[in-house]
Each structure stands twice: as C-alpha cells, then as structure tokens.
C-alpha cells in the first residue's frame, strides 16, 4: 500500500557497503576491517550503544556528493516499498562539528530530494534535527548557519541521547523556529518518561511526537494525544533492536492504535535496525496480529500527519483507498 515515512534519520540509512565505499573514496579510516565485521558490531543494548556507532559511521560523509548519494540510496529503497512521501531527518551538527559546511550537507540532501520527485515520483523533504546531548547555544548557532538554506528544509526536530536531556532544554531555539514558520517535531518517550512527551507538547509546542511509546504509562497523556490527534511516529524494529521492548510481540503499537492515537510505522535507522518500511510493517504485523483495518489506519495516519497540503493528502488517501478497494 502507498504510505508516508515520517521518521527516518538519513544518516541511519547509510548501509555498511556505502560506508566502506565512501571511506575509501574520501581516505577516511574506520575501525572495522570489513563490511561483515561492521555489521556484526550492530548489536545494541540501548539507545546510547547505537548512537556511538551511528555517529562513527557518519564520519565518512565529507562532500556534497556523499550526502546526495546517501539520500538517493534511501529514496530508491523507499520507493521500492511504495513510500510516496518522505520527511527526512538530518543531523547537521554531526557534520559541522567535523568541519563540513552546512551548505554541503543541505545542498547534497536537497538535490536528491528534488531528483526523487522527478525520477521516482516520491515527494521528499528535509527536517533539521538538533542533537539534544549538545547545548541549546550550539543548536541556536546551528539554526543560524542553516538560515541561508531556509527554503530547503520544512521543519526542525530533536534527537540523540534522550534521558537527561528533556525537551525544555531547547525551549528558546524551538520558540525561534516557530516564529520562522518551521514545522516542529521532537523525539520524546522513546526511552525517556511521559513527562518528556508533555513538555515536548506544552513547552516546545511540537506537532508530532517521534516514538512516544512510553506514553502508555500515563493515562492522562494518552487522552491528550488522542483528543488533539497528535501523531506518534513509531519505529517497531528500532524499539526491538534498542531493547525498548524485549520482543516485537510485546510492542504496544496495537494499544496505541486501539486507544485512538494517530500512530504511524516508520524505519528510524533502517541500515542499523534490520529493515526498511515494508519490513517494519510485515514483521510487526506477524508478531502482534494487527489486522488489515490497522494497516489502512496506519497508512491513513501517515498521510494525515504529514506536513503537506490538504489537496495532496486527499490525493494520497485516494491512492490508498484504491488499493484497499482492489483487495476487497
Ligand atoms: N538518532 C538516530 N536515531 C535515533 C533514535 N532512535 N533516537 C534518538 N536519536 C536518534
Ligand atoms: Zn529517531
């Protein structure tokens, strides 16, 4: 079925083969001797154990062409899974901290997005994420560096190490972004408590919550998310690989949907977590017994929660309805 992907970190789509190819062409040393050895290191115990290797992998990205090639590889893969709309996170501070210019990052990614529309029929746009383990001043400086490219990204997000870095740490920079008309999202309730989801909503005033699976621990929060139709961009294989749930069968996606929340399914960092969009859907459905009605709702939610215009959402929903009608 056609669907939107709303939670994909483009640096998390960098496959080991591409890491090795870029390391070779850019003369960057990496701590692993082969693709297989690198893949074997992808055994994580929590979010931080993943982030350490994820930031190391991103160190091979130096030139505009590298950022383009990474995004293009993801977009081709997404199109193969019938993703018709993608809102793509990128982490500029991971690159600017190594001396890579903001323009190199954004121009390379943006060129791939433009090509995706023409060559793959995929609508793709960019969301700039601030790294929450760094200071708010660093985020403000990053925003300043990105403003010359304001027309090339549609919003901002908040990612990296969650626990100990609550959303309210970034109140001023999100306020500034809101004034600039940028869309706002934040990771909250991945490993962190429901309190972080509350402050993402009430202090940062985000429009969607990335992950948010810890929300089921707080009935009042569940009610708020349902009433305000705040979408959660849930990433089941990520939650499994980062040990948020011991098994996929234990995932609370069904509880979220059945409580009337606008949950969606997404891939997060597919190169690291063992699956792109369709793999996230098929493995989650196999493990949790979700139904065809849930599948429709998940895809419909992904379009409704996207940052596109009403006419495009209607066109996407018509495509989805046509698929389900054909199957009935
Ligand atoms: N950056 C990339 N993937 C992430 C995740 N799952 N949580 C927080 N930050 C991330
Ligand atoms: Zn994420």
UniProtKB/TrEMBL annotation:
Q: Where does substrate bind?
A: 269
What enzyme category does the UniProt record give?
hydrolase
Q: Tell me the Pfam families matching this sequence.
A: A_deaminase
Question: Which residues does Zn(2+) bind?
Answer: 7, 9, 187, 268
Q: Which co-factors does it depend on?
A: Zn(2+)
> EC number(s) for this protein?
3.5.4.2
Keyword Hydrolase tagged: yes
Q: Which GO terms describe its molecular function?
A: adenine deaminase activity; zinc ion binding
**Which SUPFAM superfamilies does the entry mention?**
Metallo-dependent hydrolases (SSF51556)
Important for catalytic activity (site feature) positions? 211
Q: Which CDD domains match?
A: ADA
Could you tell me what the cofactor note in this record states? Binds 1 zinc ion per subunit.
Q: Which GO terms describe its biological process?
A: adenine catabolic process; hypoxanthine salvage; nucleotide metabolic process
- Give Gene Ontology CC terms: cytosol
> Its domain of life?
Bacteria
Q: Enumerate the active-site residues.
A: 190 (proton donor)
Catalytic activity reads:
adenine + H2O + H(+) = hypoxanthine + NH4(+)
Q: Which positions fall inside the Adenosine deaminase domain?
A: 2-322
Which keywords describe this protein according to UniProt? Hydrolase, Metal-binding, Nucleotide metabolism, Zinc
Q: What does this protein do?
A: Catalyzes the hydrolytic deamination of adenine to hypoxanthine. Plays an important role in the purine salvage pathway and in nitrogen catabolism.
**Xref: NCBIfam families:** aden_deam, PRK09358.1-6
Q: What protein family does this chain belong to? A: Belongs to the metallo-dependent hydrolases superfamily. Adenosine and AMP deaminases family. Adenine deaminase type 2 subfamily.
Q: What is this protein called?
A: Adenine deaminase
- Organism, per UniProt? Caenimonas koreensis DSM 17982
């Amino acid at each position: 079925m056609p669907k939107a992907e709303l939670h994909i970190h483009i640096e998390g789509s960098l496959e080991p083969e591409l890491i090795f190819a870029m390391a070779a062409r850019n003369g960057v040393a990496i701590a692993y001797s082969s693709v297989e050895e690198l893949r074997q290191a992808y055994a994580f115990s929590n979010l931080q154990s993943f982030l350490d290797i994820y930031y190391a992998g991103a160190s091979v990205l130096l030139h505009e062409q590298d950022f383009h090639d990474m995004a293009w590889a993801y977009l081709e893969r997404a199109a193969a899974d019938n993703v018709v709309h993608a809102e793509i996170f990128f982490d500029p501070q991971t690159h600017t901290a190594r001396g890579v210019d903001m323009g190199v990052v954004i121009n390379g990614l943006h060129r791939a997005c433009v090509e995706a529309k023409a060559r793959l029929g995929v609508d793709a746009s960019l969301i700039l994420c601030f790294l929450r383990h760094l200071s708010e001043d660093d985020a403000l400086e990053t925003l300043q560096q990105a403003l010359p490219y304001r027309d090339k990204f549609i919003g901002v997000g908040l990612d990296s190490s969650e626990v100990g870095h609550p959303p309210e740490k970034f109140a001023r920079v999100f306020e500034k972004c809101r004034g600039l008309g940028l869309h706002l999202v934040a990771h909250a309730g991945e490993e962190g408590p429901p309190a972080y989801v509350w402050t993402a909503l009430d202090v940062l005033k985000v429009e969607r919550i990335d992950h948010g699976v810890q929300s089921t621990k707080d009935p009042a929060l569940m009610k708020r998310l349902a009433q305000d139709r705040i979408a959660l961009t849930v990433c089941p294989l990520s939650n499994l690989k980062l040990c948020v749930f011991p098994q996929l069968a234990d995932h609370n996606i069904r509880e979220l949907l059945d409580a009337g929340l606008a949950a969606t399914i997404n891939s997060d960092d597919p190169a690291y977590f063992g699956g792109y969009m369709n793999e996230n859907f098929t493995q989650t459905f196999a493990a949790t017994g979700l139904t065809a009605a849930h599948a429709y709702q998940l895809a419909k939610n992904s379009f409704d929660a996207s940052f596109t215009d009403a006419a495009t959402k209607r066109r996407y929903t018509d495509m989805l309805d046509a698929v389900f009608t054909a199957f009935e």
